[in-house]
Model the fold of this input.
Amino acid sequence: MPWPTWDQAALAAVLSVALWWTLRRIRSEPTRFLEPVAAEFALVSTLYAVWRLARMLPLATDSGAMDRARDIVAAEYWLHLPTELSLQQFVLRHDWLGEPTTVYYATLHVPALIAFLVWLFFRHRDRYPHWRNGLVLVTAGCLVIRFVRVAPPRFFPDLGYQDLSHHYGVSVYGSDVATGVSDQFAAMPSIHVAWAAVVSFGIVAASTSRWRWLFLLHVVLTTLVVAATANHWWLDGIVAVLLLWGGLALDTGVRSLLARHRGVPPAIEVVSAPAYAEER
Done:
């Protein structure tokens, strides 16, 4: 199923604002519950529309993308990171892993993110703005960095990589760089890993359940999947997590600054970016 377009999201935002305004005029007991839902849906729809529009901005050139990817290979070798190729070859040797790996890459990151936002909004409203803002900032960072073009591993058959998604028939990319729903030369950073990190770390930080640690598997599996499918380098995921850390730290800093300026303590206790597992 194709993602909603920017104009569909913009229409949803307008309708949500109209609903919010109407609910505020009514001022009844049920509307106190629905008002914040309509307002937040309008905000998220607007941000989604902006994201879709930003992805449509023309990029001047793809030159240098292959050379930068080779620089990443050299950097990973210097850092003694395992090669993405060894992981892909493991999946290819165990054929039953191939299709689940490509399906996970193509489909799971968006539904998981939506489910997380809904859960956090209704179950942990005080934590919601912090993680929503972190999501916005890490996504914005990914959009900016994509202007520095980087080719993914699958563009290097000379190094032994295969396009696992095309191999197993589940792909978000077209047959060439001009088709498909995703930018083929936007490997750095990985928005898949960024969104998975929001979900995993957000659940660990907000939940008090002893089972919350299991959700760290989402970001771990996503990192493995994006490498195994040859859609991203390890450093693409590392940079994505660092961007999220910076976004959460920035949100925490701004909230603290505003609280001091107003002379009142912060309305909520936010979690500093590194302390994902800290509980109140």
